[in-house]
């Protein structure tokens, strides 16, 4: 009995394979540029060649990806480069120097630290609705940086920069840059309290 069953199964497999090949051949007949092979052999002699008209494929324009030469920087109001103080003027000079040396235009957007339009809330809303509206660089307090990193809103710096591995950092500053062992930022300001 097993021999008959195996024979029956192999016949079904061959039938299915033959059906697939016939279907494939029938489908190829409708493809542009497909030249069917005659089923009967042509008589010996001079073969008749029918010239096929050359067709020019239709060129479909594609969108060109343009890498923007603009960096969007989100900062809290206390780091406003347009403020009237020495720190703001220094930051503005550094931004202008970066623009000149690297060829990028820097657009600064000020966002509140807390509230419904805060840095973190704005990032969460943009990442869900309009990821292209996310900033290139954002200045976040440590708790917000950790939340943003854990929610996947930040790109880790590992592999992009080894600056955090420099031995010149204070140990607490290095720890502030890490979330679960990965660097997600570089500390640039701190509030040291000494007793």
Distance between the termini: 93 Å
What fraction of residues sit in β-strands?
5-15%
List low-confidence stretches: 1-6, 15-40
How confident overall, as mean pLDDT? 76
**Strand order within the widest beta sheet:** 2-1-3
Radius of gyration of CA atoms, rounded to a whole number: 33 Å
Helix content: 25-40%
Structural category? alpha/beta
Tally of extended strands? 5
Tell me what the structure shows:
By secondary structure, this protein is α/β, with parallel strands linked by helices. Helices cover 36% and strands 9% of the residues. The chain is built from five helices and five strands; from the N terminus they run H-E-H-E-H-E-H-H-E-E. Strand 1, helix 2 and strand 2 form a beta-alpha-beta unit.
Keywords:
195 residues, alpha/beta, three-stranded parallel β-sheet, disordered N terminus
Write the layout of secondary structure elements.
Blueprint: H1 2-28, E1 70-75, H2 86-102, E2 105-110, H3 119-129, E3 137-138, H4 142-150, H5 171-177, E4 178-179, E5 182-183
Parallel strand pairs: 1-2, 1-3
Antiparallel strand pairs: 4-5
Helix pairs in contact: 3-4
Write a compact overview of the structure shown.
The chain is α/β, with parallel strands linked by helices and 195 residues long. The protein has helices spanning 2-28, 86-102, 119-129, 142-150, 171-177; strands at 70-75, 105-110, 137-138, 178-179, 182-183. The radius of gyration is 33 Å and the shape is elongated.
